[in-house]
Amino acid sequence: MNRTRSDNLLRTARFVAVLLLFAIPVVYLGIQRNYGVLQFAQLALDGLRGGAIYALIAMGFVMVFNVTGIINFAQGAFVMLGGMLTVTFYQMESSLPDRLHLIASAVLAVIITTLIGILIERLTIYPARKSSTLTLIIITVGVYIAMQGLGLLVWGAKAYVFPAFTTLAMTDHVFRWFGLVIKAQSFWIWGSMILVLVLLAYFFERTLLGKAMRACSVNRHGARLVGIGAERMSLLAFGMAAAVGAIGGIVVSPILRPSYDMGLSLGLKGFVAAILGGLVSTPGAVLGGLLLGFLENVAAGVTKAGMKDIYAFILLILTLLFRPQGLLGVGKTAVESSSEDQG
Question: In terms of CB atoms within 10 Å, which of 158, 215, 240, 287 comes out highest?
């Protein structure tokens, strides 16, 4: 036990040291560009906005992994469906006031995406539930590719526009505080992340279904022995992950023009955030998402915006090398735990 704790502390120390080594050249490059505290603060604030989206997506990865032991790479498809379905419904004729029409469109998109998530679990994961973890992960990759192809057929290759929630127009309200510029949509994104986190905490701590899902995350075989249906919990996990992913796709749509392929990059960033947080808890997913958004945006801001994705996956590699159980994970890594459950 002491040796395991020492190893964990050593890995954590190495990971922190690597992050510091990563931060030093970033700060240096910013200073070379004459960036001051205000410029770094603006980059950090914008990064936390993107990080909140990654956190929402990462929560879906965590829920599915905890119950089923697989990494659901179809999570990005749920993000795309949330955004594209909301755009589609909002563009339809309606007698409702614009604000109510937007709310109804978003709610309907979340419901339909949730049902699609449930259907995907029943048609793809459930029939192959006795297969290896690798087989199930490959299935989710295939599901994402199929969903993206269907999205291309339905919506075409063009990017759509979606109004800001506050103004219901293409231009958003902007706050200027102490020299920092904050769009009103950022508050919708942060608020959505906090609301989902609170609701999930209540669900897992206070409800019978939530406690049953937690039991499956601790020991799936033991949960079966006490009468908890792992298959039903898997169905619930996919439905909830689809709903959370759809919410992420909806709130980001006014900032990132939604398109059929928007789920690819966002889904992969959500996966990185989940790994960074430990892939075991929703608070860890939030921490991983915010840290990822912060680091990649600051690093891209002092170099080139086109390099943003590179920094995200550099961070993934560093995490797997020096802290494979993530920031809030302890003991076994996610891969080791999943392998034992399959055995």
Answer: 240
Extract long-range pairs of 223-226: CB within 8 Å, 24+ residues apart. Answer: none
Local structure of 174: helix, strand or coil: strand
Q: Please spell the DSSP secondary structure of 313-325, one letter per residue.
A: HHHHHHHHHH-TT
pLDDT tens digit string along 173-227?
Answer: 999 988 899 999 999 999 999 999 999 999 999 898 888 888 887 777 777 777 7
Q: How far apart are CA 201 and CA 103, in angstroms?
A: 24
The rounded distance, in Å, linking the Cα atoms of 324 and 198 is 27
State the first-to-last Cα distance of the chain, in angstroms, to the nearest integer: 24
CB 82, CB 258: distance < 8 Å: no
Q: Which residues pair with 71 in a beta bridge?
A: none
**Could you give the maximum distance between any two Cα atoms of the chain, in Å?**
67
Looking at the chain, list the stretches that DSSP marks H as alpha helix, in order from N- to C-terminal side. Answer: 2-32, 37-68, 75-91, 98-120, 133-155, 184-206, 208-218, 220-225, 230-252, 262-277, 282-302, 308-322, 334-342
Alpha helices in 156-261 (DSSP H): 184-206, 208-218, 220-225, 230-252
Give residue 87's domain range. 2-342
Residues 102, 261: Cα–Cα separation, whole Å? 23
pLDDT value at residue 88: 95
**Measured between alpha carbons, how far is residue 137 from residues 131, 150, 252, 253 in Å?**
10, 20, 26, 28
CATH number at residue 335: 1.10.3470
Residue pair 196/244 in contact (Cβ under 8 Å)? The answer is yes
Q: Considering its fold, how many domains does the chain have in total? A: 1
Nearest residue to 255 (alpha-carbon basis) of 75, 83, 39: 83
CB burial readout 77-99, b (16+ within 10 A) else e: bbbbbbbbbbbbbbeeeeeeeee
Tell whether the model's pLDDT for residue 340 goes beyond 70: no
Residue with tokens 């087989």: 135
- Give this prediction's pTM: 0.90
